[in-house]
């Protein structure tokens, strides 16, 4: 989900000499929508991902989807390095497509304390025109969205065991080198010390974490929700009822 350390990990990866940061691409959502439309009954929707698109997408050829994605992604690349990151948080919805259409893609999912995730999503004003973030205007909607995200990640792990590295933000903060080595190994990258100095990466950042990733690893983002514990109690209590501890 957004606000879980995705920008931090993107900076770590793009500090490697073989990786460039391409930003938060819409390449996979739009490629799925485009190819699914060819197999639908002509009904259109303003939403990128809806029931009709999912149903029609079952007829999509996986290789064609991978090619359509790469064409869109290439338009946003500088092509200065052989590999690139696509850090769109909503890609977690498309892991099934990604796993089949891009068999060599390495997928990383950031996991942050549920209550810190909910608080940080709820307090942040995302792009108001994007339906992807509509849940974040209401505290309980944000909690419900997190629970659905959590269940979906469990399903992806069941379907493609080991394909997604679920990386804990808290573990990364606690042991930067160990978790960075784990991350690079999952991505098929050799160890490079520059990845520990991600804060020296001068690539532009266009997310709310822009200032944070200019600093070395720190613990400032841990347990921040507790400053608002009383106001957030309805979300914490509801999550506990879903078997999710904050």
Q: Mean pLDDT, rounded to whole units?
A: 91
Sequence stretches where pLDDT stays below 50 over 5 or more residues: none
The count of DSSP E runs of length 2 or more, i.e. the number of strands, is 4
State the end-to-end distance. Answer: 15 Å
Fraction in beta strands? 5-15%
Structural category is mainly alpha
Structural Rg? 18 Å
Number of helices: 10
In what order do the strands lie side by side in the largest sheet? 1-2
- Portion in helices: 40-55%
Tell me, briefly, the overall form.
globular
The largest sheet, given as strand count, sense and whether it forms a barrel, is: 2 strands, parallel
The H-and-E topology, N to C, reads as HEHHHEHEHHEHHH
SSE map:
Layout: H1 6-14, E1 19-21, H2 27-37, H3 51-57, H4 62-74, E2 83-85, H5 95-101, E3 107-111, H6 114-123, H7 139-159, E4 164-168, H8 169-174, H9 176-186, H10 229-241
Parallel strand pairs: 1-2, 3-4
Helix pairs in contact: 2-3, 2-4, 4-5, 6-7, 7-10
Q: What is the compact description of this entry?
A:
The protein has 246 residues and is mainly alpha-helical. 44% of the residues lie in helices and 7% in strands. The chain has ten helices and four strands.
What can you tell me about this protein's structure?
This protein is mainly alpha-helical and 246 residues long. It is built from 10 helices and 4 strands, in the order αβαααβαβααβααα. It has helices at 6-14, 27-37, 51-57, 62-74, 95-101, 114-123, 139-159, 169-174, 176-186, 229-241; strands at 19-21, 83-85, 107-111, 164-168. The strands form 2 sheets. The protein has a two-stranded parallel sheet. It has a two-stranded parallel ribbon with strand order 3-4. Helix 2 (27-37) crosses helix 3 (51-57), helix 4 packs across helix 5 and helix 7 runs parallel beside helix 10 (229-241). The radius of gyration is 18 Å and the shape is globular. The two termini are 15 Å apart.
């Amino acid at each position: 989900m957004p606000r879980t350390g995705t920008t931090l990990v993107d900076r770590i990866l793009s500090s490697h000499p073989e990786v460039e940061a391409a930003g938060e691409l819409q390449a996979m959502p739009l490629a799925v929508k485009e190819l699914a439309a060819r197999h639908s009954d002509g009904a259109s929707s303003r939403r990128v991902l809806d029931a009709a698109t999912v149903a029609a997408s079952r007829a999509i050829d996986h290789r064609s989807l991978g090619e359509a994605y790469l064409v869109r992604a290439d338009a946003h690349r500088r092509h200065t390095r052989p590999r690139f990151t696509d850090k769109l948080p909503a890609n977690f919805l498309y892991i099934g497509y990604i796993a089949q259409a891009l068999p060599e893609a390495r997928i990383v999912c950031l996991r942050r304390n549920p209550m810190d995730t909910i608080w940080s999503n709820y307090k942040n004003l995302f792009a108001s025109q994007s339906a992807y973030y509509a849940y974040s205007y209401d505290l309980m909607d944000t909690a419900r969205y997190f629970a659905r995200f959590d269940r979906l990640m469990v399903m992806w792990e069941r379907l493609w065991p080991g394909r997604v590295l679920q990386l804990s933000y808290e573990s990364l903060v606690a042991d930067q080198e160990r978790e960075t080595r784990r991350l690079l190994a999952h991505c098929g990258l050799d160890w490079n010390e520059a990845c520990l100095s991600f804060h020296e990466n001068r690539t532009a950042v266009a997310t709310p974490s822009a200032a944070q990733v200019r600093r070395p690893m720190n613990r400032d983002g841990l347990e921040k929700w507790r400053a608002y514990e009383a106001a957030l109690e309805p979300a914490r209590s509801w999550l506990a009822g879903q078997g999710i501890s904050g």
